[in-house]
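Hi F.,

I've been meaning to write this up properly since the lab meeting, where we talked about keeping a consistent format for the predictions we share between groups. The idea is simple: the sequence comes first, exactly as it goes in, then the structure tokens exactly as they come out, then a line or two of notes. No screenshots and no reformatting. I'm using this chain as the first example so we have something concrete to point to.
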Amino acid sequence: MLDPVPSHLTSALSPFTAPIMSLRYTGDTPDVSISAGKLLLADGAETLEIILSGKTASEVAGEVTKSSLGYRAHVLFDAADMGAIGLTTDPDDLTTDGAQLLRADGHVFKNLEETRLRLLRPYNEDRHMPWHVRVDRGTTTRLQHGGTWLFSVPEYDSQPWSLLYGKPYMDQRSVRATRIGRKAISVPRTPIYWRHNNLVLHVRGIEQPASVILDVDERNGIIFLNANYDEDEVILVDHTYEERSLIYQGVDLNPTEFHNPGVLDRYVVFYMLPWAGPDGRIRSDTVRHSESSTLLGALMSIPRTEEPFLVLGAAQVRQVGSISDVEVTDTRTWGGGVKKDILDAAARRMEDVRSTTDHGHYDGTPYPGNAAIVVELPDELRQTLEMDEIQRLVRKHVAYGSYVILEFRQ
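Output, unedited:
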């Protein structure tokens, strides 16, 4: 994150305005300005106002990209508070490819937080994927028993790196993208390592031509499309990204049925053992975890030896709602049923008329109607069969008239 440099230091620095973001417009003439703490974007007929205060550069870029005005934002440095750094822009201040720059009105500094030992959240992926916490890289020492113990993350180096690019890049296959309107999508693992031929989209099992990718915001994982897809269309992405942390595989925090339901409502403490000690011995993996029904119990479950340990953090996955929190409101209105004076005569000809809204029996006579079911299928099925064929085979085995919802699992 970028923050303003303290005023008592700026006198020693030469004048400079740091570029924070670039804005590219797909129309003829962009109209970008800063006024009263807002970023104003116009396309002639419509103006978008984005409040800057309290928002990071990534959050502002997300609002720009989601709009329908034809602007694409690329974050160059992720400022912590866009309203605090003082932004300026000039229509003549452009990148080499014609994007207009937003600059911080003054000096900024960047905290190198990537190098400290800390626990990071799992990637924001769907419920079908494992939830593995991550550990940021770094090194620290601790004095104990008259010796110096070194803490580090050596197992970072032995992760499954990309066969083509090697460390620090990892390959992702068939990742379900998040839709951002009709002409942009995003992936959870960033930054994307884009080399124009190593990012592939799949729709309904068909590989899309490279020309559908208009541009890529590598830092924020946003892929701009040169084609219109329906917003409910599932797009799968093959891509490579830079992995800066250890993905700890020791425990899956996903409490769903096919992952680790036993972790629900339990505390998981993550800690580290020394990489090297005063006796010269080293270990190849240092990150560990312990579990218990209480936080204190998980902490006390950490084995005690002559070696020190370093607690990184704790996690708990718990249910935040119950069935009693669901409120059902019946929005149906009376009317439209068969008139009471002819109900018996009509029922002799068609018994179902007694099941209309006006004449139904509360918690008694069932209403006739269709069913809706969810069918879960393996995602790789779409690689071998067309969607129409899958739907035909599924409908062959369900009751006639049922509404079928297909869910594909990775």
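Notes:
The longest helix spans residues 57-66.
Residues 372-409 form one domain.

If this format works for you, I'll send the rest the same way.

G.
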